[in-house]
Amino acid sequence: MAMLQRGDVAMISGVSMDSVKTLQAAGLKLVESPDGQINSVVLWGTWDHPEVPAANPKVRQALGLAINRQEMADTLYSGKARVPESFFASPVSPYWDPQIFKAHTYDPVKAKALLAEAGYANGFNITIFAYTASGIASMHVDMATVIVDYWKKIGVNASMQIVDTAAISPWHRAYPTDPHLVGQASMFRNLPSPLTSALGETFLLP
After folding, report:
1. Is the C or the N end of the chain the one with fewer CB within 10 Å?
2. CB burial of residue 183 (10 Å; 0-12, 13-18, 19+)
3. β-sheet with 29-32: strand ranges across
4. Residue 118's pLDDT band (cuts 50, 70, 90)
5. Which of 94, 93, 100, 71 is nearest to 83 (CA)?
């Protein structure tokens, strides 16, 4: 970003939303195109630890219903993001089918009811691990902070822990699930692929 401001480079890409605001205020031009990158939350241990709360489909559905994705898109991303209909594909992908992929809904009342049905009317403990990174992924800490608040509103005792990318990467790759992650959650960045993207990007120009 400093190099762009000094005029050492003609453009940069993959900048955070905070940087976009700063550079636009400095008179730089923003050029946008669709990007299939999807930031999401992964619930760990649901496939190999049936004892954890999130192994129950109703708990997973409740946690999803508790998140107001549109509000996050409008505030954290200043309206420059859209609510994803799927973790696996996006509207800029040639494999997109609107008849198959439907947007998630926000329904905290139903979320509370599902928790009660699953036997967790009084909630449970869960930690979201957010890792430090640059560019767009730097939003993960902000996103995790907001998601923790959404989950608390339906009675879940949620918290956030920030870890370094180098520390969490081996946890993500481990199988069986790394003990640090069993029964917990972490932010995850689904990078653009043929399924999710048509090579979209965001650039800032002088």
Report:
1. C
2. buried
3. 12-13, 202-205, 29-32
4. very high
5. 71
Q: What is the pLDDT of residues 128-181, one digit of tens each?
A: 999 876 555 567 888 899 999 999 999 999 999 999 888 888 998 888 899 999
**pTM confidence score:** 0.79
CA distances (Å), 118 to each of 46, 65, 85, 92, 113, in order? 15, 15, 25, 37, 9
Tell me the one-letter amino acid at 133.
A
Cα 144 from Cα 133, distance rounded (Å): 14
Question: Which residues are CB-neighbours of 179 under 8 A, at least 6 positions away?
Answer: none
pLDDT in tens, 9-22: 777 666 666 677 77
**Count of CB atoms within 10 A of residue 194's CB?**
12
Query: Cα–Cα distances in Å, from 204 out to 26, 28, 39, 42?
Result: 11, 7, 21, 31
